[in-house]
Amino acid sequence: MASLPERFEKWFAAKGWRLRAHQAEMLDAAQEGADALLIAPTGAGKTLAGFLPSLVALAARPREGLHTLYVSPLKALGTDIARNLQIPVAEMGLSVSIETRSGDTPANRRARQKEMAPNILLTTPESLLLLLSQENSGVYFKGLACVVVDEIHALAGTKRGDQLALCLSRLRALSATRIVGLSATVAHPEAMRRFVGRKRGWYRPRRGRRPRSR
């Protein structure tokens, strides 16, 4: 099972935290380039688990351009997550840029993001569709390493979810990206798995175990 780099270990220790089993398993999935679905109740460290592999990767190899794309059904959620994500980035002194993009984003910021993408961009399915329709989308998303889809249970089986599934397919055609799904506890997790799953690999961390299908 994966362990944290020293900088992250110290940050966890300062918070009085220990790396949870499902967070370590999400790091394992990232190292293997596998898609992942994490189903966990509120307060289980689900969001940090989704972003931790990206922060570790960007800490080890700082770079320009888009590395991780976060998509949620609610723009307010993306704003809150971006604000919360800035805390570990600032406290660990990571060179990671984080921005949001939605219908409320000022035109000058959207124009700047088009020319110089942040490392982590938090957006909605509709704004993602607009980004993919841009002339330079092939270049913009070429280096994308991960897409985190939050509240996936609210998207699967809906028209917005169908739209997002097409966007994810397009992103996979443009880059070697992996998909991470985050969801609250649901009765039928297979529907979530099918939404973003592929043959390459699938992890669903749960209660410290790692069910896996290939």
Plain-language structure description:
With 214 residues, the protein is an alpha/beta fold. The chain has 9 helices and 8 strands. The protein has an 8-stranded mixed sheet, with helices on both faces. Helix 2 crosses helix 3 and helix 6 crosses helix 8 (159-174). The longest helix has 17 residues, at 75-91.
DSSP strand content: 5-15%
Order of helices and strands: HHEHEHEHEHHEHEHEE
Cross-sheet strand order for the largest sheet: 3-4-2-5-6-1-7-8
The N- and C-terminal alpha carbons lie at a distance of 18 Å
Uncertain segments of ≥5 residues (pLDDT<50)?
199-203, 205-214
Largest sheet: 8 strands, mixed
TL;DR?
This protein has 214 residues and is an alpha/beta fold. Helices cover 46% and strands 14% of the residues.
Name the features:
214 residues, alpha/beta, eight-stranded mixed sheet, 9 helices
Write the layout of secondary structure elements.
Layout: H1 6-15, H2 21-31, E1 35-39, H3 46-60, E2 68-71, H4 75-91, E3 98-101, H5 107-115, E4 120-123, H6 125-132, H7 137-140, E5 146-149, H8 159-174, E6 178-183, H9 189-196, E7 202-203, E8 212-213
Parallel strand pairs: 1-6, 1-7, 2-4, 2-5, 3-4, 5-6
Antiparallel strand pairs: 7-8
Helix pairs in contact: 2-3, 6-8
